[in-house]
Design brief:
The complex is a heterodimer of chains A (110) and B (317). Chain A is mainly alpha-helical and 110 residues long. Chain A is built from five helices and two strands, in the order αβααααβ. Chain A has a single domain, classed as HPT domain (Four Helix Bundle (Hemerythrin (Met), subunit A)), CATH 1.20.120. Chain B is of the alpha/beta class. The chains are: A mainly alpha (110), B alpha/beta (317). At the A-B interface, α2 and α3 of A face α1 of B. Bound molecules: magnesium ion.
């Protein structure tokens, strides 16, 4: 992906609002909660629960840019769109799930 | 009730956010922290709709895709209910198709913001929606305010009076109506000039505003005639209020013309309980009492009971 080329896979991903005093508290909250979201996405994959996977991807697409993580929003959007074309097949979107999960792993508050 | 700043929306407006995604609640709360608005967030269409009725917010920010009652349904129900149909709604949705936008606007939305949203843009759009709401309210209210005195005008009276008559008929609660008319007002105008006449009308209006209680509706009916609607008020109490106005007015010293006395007559129609008397009939009864007060020598108030067992008379002054 474009983003992967710009940043090496292990480089921390920092919120663009990291220095915004209005935002830092909820950015921290988002970063803290993010592993749970990834976990929920993985569970949905394991359970072949397409409906939940779609909801989780949809919410992350909407929310992540607000916390200053546009790349995660993009990746979640790609996953959501792939689910729409893969016709309910989880296997068809495994690549997109992994892309999203590895991006999330790089997230740091600052 | 007289016109005050709160009714013109000068208080901090309540903005209700209805979105099934809590991230949106958190983000908006953080981003709108310094805005002149009070943010309330709800997680579903069902609870959101309840809160709309309860809070009567100045603005609703509404998600479309929600489990259970979705945003379209919330819009539909708001527009079908007279108590919520004027509340502006800004849609905040991930649905980007022109069809969805058209449907939302058809259902009465005033703006449509797509997710993921830019918070700066959202902020100015909410400000614009609030400002529009404020101006529309102001215009609507101005159209019902008398320019000279600042009291409600005839148009507002006609509307409110019908409502109050219906309300009292339904609930069986007391209701009173007072009609005031300045005595020999033409002489004031002829002797002291129209500016002095206007000052008297403004003075009477101030007096009515002072004497009227929060729930009373004081209006300038036209010319030198004023009316006060007194919900939940028995006729004797209404007659009392008229007396206070009458006495205070005759005690008033008019600037520069200490010898000039201005007096007022009043007619009251009032009911203690259930009555099916029509709105126009009420006004006729109050007018008759006003006429009685005039013919008995002016500067007095006359009252009769409406409905119930036969008319009972009571006069003061
Ligand atoms: Mg939603």
């Amino acid at each position: 992906m474009r983003d992967e080329q710009e940043h090496p896979a292990d480089e921390p991903l920092v919120s663009e609002f990291a220095s915004d005093p209005d935002m830092i508290e909820i950015v921290e909250y988002f970063v803290e909660e993010l592993p749970k979201r990834v976990q929920a996405i993985r569970s949905a994959v394991t359970d072949s629960d397409v409906q939940s996977l779609r909801t989780l991807a949809h919410q992350l697409k909407g929310a992540a840019p607000g916390y200053g993580f546009a790349a995660i929003g993009d990746a979640a959007g790609v996953l959501e769109a792939s689910l729409r074309v893969s016709d309910g097949s989880i296997e068809g979107v495994m690549g997109q799930v992994e892309d999203l999960a590895s991006l999330c792993q790089r997230v740091r508050v600052r | 009730m007289t016109v005050d700043a709160e009714q013109l929306g000068e208080h901090v407006p309540i903005v209700l956010v209805i979105d099934d995604c809590e991230d949106v609640h958190r983000l908006l709360t953080a981003r709108l922290r310094n805005e002149a608005m009070e943010l309330v967030c709800e997680i579903s269409g069902e609870v959101g709709l309840e809160r709309i009725h309860q809070l009567q917010p100045s603005l609703v920010v509404l998600d479309l895709e929600m489990p259970g009652m979705d945003g379209f349904e919330v819009l539909r129900r708001m527009k079908d209910d007279i108590s919520t149909s004027d509340i502006p709604v800004v849609v905040l949705s991930g649905m980007q198709s022109p069809n969805d936008k058209v449907t939302a606007f058809d259902l009465g939305a005033v703006d449509y913001i797509t997710k993921p949203f830019d918070l700066m843009e959202l902020r100015v759009r909410l400000r614009a929606a609030l400002k529009m709401r404020h101006l529309i309210q102001m215009l609507a209210q101005r159209a019902q305010i008398d320019g000279l005195t600042g009291l409600w005008n005839r148009a507002h009276f006609d509307e409110r009076w019908s409502e109050e008559v219906k309300r009292a008929e339904r609930s069986g609660s007391p209701l009173s109506l007072a009609v005031f008319d300045l005595d020999h007002f033409k002489q004031v105008n002829d002797t002291y000039g129209h500016p002095a006449g206007d000052a008297v009308l403004q003075g009477v209006a101030r007096l009515l505003q002072q004497v009227a209680r929060q729930a009373d509706v004081a209006c300038r009916y036209g010319g030198e005639e004023f009316v006060v609607i007194m919900p939940d008020t028995p006729p004797e109490q209404a007659l009392n209020l008229c007396e206070r106005v009458r006495v205070a007015l005759s005690d008033t010293d008019w600037p520069g013309k200490p010898s000039r006395e201005v007096t007022i007559s009043a007619g009251v129609a009032g009911s203690n309980g259930p009555t099916s008397t029509g709105r126009d009939e009420w006004i006729e009864i109050a007018d008759k009492n006003l006429y009685r007060a005039k013919s008995q020598g002016r500067n007095r108030a006359c009252m009769t009971h409406v409905g119930g067992a036969g008319p009972r008379l009571a006069d003061a002054g």
